[in-house]
Amino acid sequence: MAEKLRRGPISREDLRYLSDNRDVPVPKLAAHLKRSKATVVKYLEEITGLRPGKKQFIKGLHDRAFWSEVRRGLLDHEVDYFEQSWRSYTEQFSASTDILPTDELMIKDLIMLDIFAQRAIAEQAHVARRITSLQDDINKEERASVNNRDQMVIADLRTQINSLYAAKSALAKQHLDYQQRKDAKLRDLKGSRDQRFKQIEESRRNIFELIKDLDQHRRRVEEGRIAEKVRLAAERTAKDWQQYHTYEDGEVDKPFLCPEGEVEDD
Predict the structure, then answer these.
(1) Which position among 15, 40, 81, 221 has the lowest Cβ density within 10 Å, counted as fewest Cβ atoms?
(2) Mean pLDDT, rounded, of the chain
(3) What pLDDT is stored for residue 86 in this prediction?
(4) Is 90 helix (H, G, I), strand (E, B) or coil?
(5) Of residues 43, 13, 48, the one with CA closest to residue 30
(6) Angstrom distance (rounded) from CA 112 to CA 78
(7) Quick check: is 38 in a domain?
(8) Are residues 141 and 238 both part of a single domain?
């Protein structure tokens, strides 16, 4: 007879147990607490703010060798964005095939390029606000009477505005460069994974599909030509290995001994 599950609000002791053992698989937690899996998942979400599966993606990120270097180069809000993006990409790609180390490095570079592009956008916004502020100062100065107007201040403000426009243009080019590199990295990532996924799908072809494929005359001729080339190459290599060779130590012998070679010598 199955053990009856407990119902009702969870106790503080059980909550503390879940908090201390949040990395333990849900079925084991549910069995220990005598609660349903849905109840355990619900309280784990409240404790961690993430579904258990999503938390595993982030924990895996923190275990990577590159994470410490990446973490040092990011601001606090950028770390959160990196973790969320990592979780989204790994969830997306792991649904089709396994994620290889090269895929992880490409995902890391992809997210970093995205963050750099966002930085460029933020800097552009800051520069635009600064230009607006300086223009307001110029307008204020020009509204003053001719006697109270300071032309040196106006000239200095316009010089600052021109410099800011140049910086804004450079930031726009920088953002475009990051965006183009990000798009290219995403295409490479999808392309490499699509190619591997295609190979996996092709490897699942059964014998009946192969027989159907060989039923075509053109394919039979092609496969026969390849098989004959392989046979001829094997025969030539076998004959070469049946000949006597002089080794570096001066010894003369056959690298490949077989009855056929000995019969030919006789």
Answers:
(1) 221
(2) 79
(3) 87
(4) helix
(5) 43
(6) 10
(7) yes
(8) no
Helices (H) and strands (E) in the chain, counts: 11, 2
Judging by beta carbons within 10 Å of its beta carbon (0-12, 13-18, 19+), is residue 89 exposed, middle or buried? buried
The amino acid sitting at 3 is E
Tokens found for residue 179: 């965006």
As a whole number of Å, the CA-based R_g of the chain is: 35
77 and 139, same domain (yes or no): yes
Residue type, 68: S
- Total number of domains in the chain: 3
For 246, the enclosing helix (H) or strand (E) is strand 245-246
- The domain of 122 spans 64-200
Give the residue with greater pLDDT, 51 vs 88: 88
In a domain, 59, yes or no: no
Query: Residue 84: which CATH number?
Result: 1.10.287
Which own/partner contact pairs does 121-126 have at CB distance under 8 Å and 24+ positions apart? 121/175, 123/171, 124/168, 124/171, 124/172, 124/175
For residues 123 and 193, state if they share a domain.
yes
- What's the token pair of residue 166? 């140049």
% pLDDT > 90, the chain: 20
User: Partners of 246 in the beta sheet?
Assistant: 252
Element (H, E) at 253: strand 252-253
45 & 70 share domain? no
Q: Which of 83, 252, 262, 114 is closest to 182 using CA atoms?
A: 114
In single-letter form, the type of residue at position 197 comes to F
The angle subtended at Cα 264 by Cα 258 and Cα 266, nearest 5°, is 105
- Give the H/E segment covering residue 229: helix 217-241
Question: In this structure, what token pair is assigned to residue 242?
Answer: 């049946």
Query: For 248, which DSSP code?
Result: T
